[in-house]
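QA checklist item 7 of 12: single-chain prediction sanity check.
[x] sequence parsed
[x] length recorded as 1017
[x] structure emitted
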Amino acid sequence: MQNKGAVRLLAIIFAAICLYQLTFTYFANKVERDAREYAQGDFQKERTYLDSMKNEEVYNFFWLQKYTYQDCKEREINLGLDLKGGMNVILEIAVEDIIRSLAAPQYLTDPTFTQTMDAAKAMKANSTADLIDLFAEAFEEQNPGGQLAQFFMTPESRGDIDFNTSNDDVVTFLKQEAEDAIDNSYNVLRNRIDRFGVVQMNIQRLERQGRILVALPGVSEPERVTKLLTGTANLEFWTTYQNVEIWNSIEEANQVIADMQNASEILEGEAVEDTVQEEITEEAPAAGDDDMLLDGESLFSDTSDLGILGEADSEDLFQEEEAVFMKENPLFAVMRPYMDNTGQLIPSAIAGVVELRDTAKVNAFLNIPRVKQLFPADLRFAWHYQAQGETTEFLYLYALKATRNGQPAMDGKYVTDARPNTDPYTGEFQVSMSMNSEGAKRWANLTRENVNKAIAIVLDGVVYSAPNVNEEIKGGSSSISGNFTQNEATDLSNILKSGKMPARARVISSEVIGPSLGAQSVKDGFNSFIIAFIVVLLYMVFYYSRTAGLVADIALMANMFFLIGVLASLQAALTLPGIAGIVLTIGMSVDANVLIYERIREELAAGKGKKAALKDGYRNAYSAIIDANVTTFLTALILFFFGTGPIKGFATTLVIGILTSLFSAVILTRLVYERWLDKGRTLTFSTRLTENAFKNLNIDFLSKRKIFYVISGIIIAGGIFSLATKGLNGGVDFTGGRNYVIEFKEEVEVAEVRNMLEESFGEMPTVITFGQKNAVRVTTKYMIDDDGPSVDSLIKALMYTGLQPVLGNEVTMEEFVNEQEYIVSSHKVGPTIADDIKRSSVWVVLASLAIIFLYILIRFRNWQFGLGALVALVHDVAIVMGLFSLLSGIMPFSLEIDQAFIAAILTVVGYSINDTVVVFDRIREYVGLQRKRERKEIFNTALNNTLSRTFSTSLSTFVVLLTIFIFGGDVIRGFIFALLIGVVVGTYSSLFIATPVVYDTIRKGETQRVLKGTRKA
């Protein structure tokens, strides 16, 4: 081996860098260990201790560099959400809002504009194209030769848009503005998260326009974070109507609704007279238009679902007399006046009090065109942001007064600072705001003109407070009160300080892992890692002797050290699939050692001395090692670039593991052997039990190839039949929906839980046991198309109500929803991103097959070898998918098709081609050495002589995966099961499918020409 000194120096430098990077993890863990000992189980005390240590020096690197706890925390090995717990969210910035904000106000209600937008949104549902392009396309279809510029000529766009601007230039302008708005949204979100105080947070823009990924490890308050991320910070100040001013209109509205035919059916959401039905089901206008509800759908946009709830509740709550009252007073039945104990109206901006479940009905009533005509044209209704009451939750409905142009009296752009503090009189938390000089003048004028009236402070369409003005307020000071907790006041001030979002951000995918489930995943992952590592170490010593096995074990341990060190250096997150990738790397890295050892054994059997055998063994193994690792590396790269979240973590560890295993197995082991030989040490590469294993084999694989074709055909046909009749069990990644893992204090029956939740949802969810018998996973598509901000809370509330018999009365809704003691993880995938995942998954699999085919074609220089590899890979994928279909519902664990399954398929592809390439490489070698032998004999000899390597690699990999399958926990059991099938099927196809297909496609007359081309490669 040349340049030994340089290689040794490189290895030492590499090891030193890895050790340096790992020291940060050690010192960060040391501080956290001290915090746990100090707190003695008190979480708040532990958090206070860590906060106090944030800027304290904890690591002094040889007096050259000092590091605080915060520095170490930022440089330690990142644990993914599935190991540490936390929240992973994909947000989509509403490009529709950006387009609307750029349009001239007079066109927002223009039929041409609204119809174009509706058409573009409908096209977007089945397209991956940009909404702006679709908007332009829809406009061209509906208005041939029309000018888009008319919509966007505003004072702000002067110089960019005029009557002569072409549609293409308008599209370019809109895209640039949208890009700037999304960048601004990204910065606003980053500022909000920074103020939230999350360490090791990750926020990044995704390739798809308008999508932003936010990963927050360790977060334990998902509801709070969701509000923080999705709030637009659209702050407004509205003047108000007194309820006494509009009371006559409310009474008239009640009578008009009662006079409508079948008014009681309106309440229940059932069929009514056609003309009335059209008025009620008419879509409410967008916020800020001429509709009376400032945000008519800010609570629940799907009124039909709540109508069903109202129907069920009405049978229990309303007696016969109350049913008569409801028929005669349909509005007052759901919206009570704001009165005192004597029955007199309390003068206030509160127009009515509505139970939480009835808000959608009130929205529908007040948006009936005939009812809207009864109220002043400048009246806007808006809900209070927070429900009141203990036993029955209700909301206040406020009456706001718009200016002449339909806007609020003042907006929040003048606010320069916001901070949480306490009211000096009540002691309640509030948010104090300061304004700039212009804002101070406007605020003084506004308060002077509304003395003894209420001014409503509205944020994101809901009222936070509506205090009465006692006198003119100078200096630009104001405050928002609303019975806040300290956290709520802090979050609200952070949202206001971070700035207004240019458009709505909606959650299209989210995953929440509770800390208890994360801790269990760490334990399961660590146990499976240790057991698998020990098994591989012992196997290498058993099969290849104490000396050769020990060197291989040293290489494996060095490989793990380098792999973890590189992960720490790159700040890559270690996920549970990432641990699976590490353990799989252990099994696959054995392959390089096995290839080398098998070659050395062959050279020794040929009578060569130890040094010559070592030299030739390494040289002859290089080709197969490179080909096998390159093909696996290519599939790992595809996973890395197209995968997200845990799948990307799996690909990251696999890519790094392949590189470090090559360095360890090929370079470090050779350094050790050559040093031992220089010292005269005895080297052996087999034991008495294994020295004759797989020697002198003469199995005629090719003669039996048609039998195996038939066997494979039967298995694949059975799988296709199952796929056609039964199909695959699509997970929420592909179908859209929500998953919840719920832990109970005692064992529960799956059927019982399913029936309880069916009553709550009105549809049957999928419920399966998750690990222990006291835990279940609930999958539902209930309201998945509704992305309203309160939908997730509503679904959890429905689950709580349905599960009351098994939860018991001592468990409150707040504990069930927020404490993560019961709902230990949740996963939501909206229908839009589910479609994207399906499309990308298909392309990823096809791309991996195409890339591998091209690599084999280039490497072996003929299409027959590429075809043989491709047929084997399609064979393996078909069998794995068929078995998943056949066994779904039979196995005691989930066999869902999700992103993890696609990762498993690609890993199987990489593993299978690894096996196949080793055989192909041996065929290529024998063609050059044994030119006069028959092709059948060459192929059979290659298969027989690589059988020892196939056995060792497949067995060690299978045992490693089986260890993870048994000890790795339920989270990745289905994923590992796919890999187990893949290892078996991949080994089978490399022996009985790939090589026979090459043999059958090379016609006898072409044998020498084809093999000659292979030999030249």
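[x] summary fact logged: The CA atoms of residues 18 and 566 lie 6 Å apart.
[ ] second reviewer sign-off
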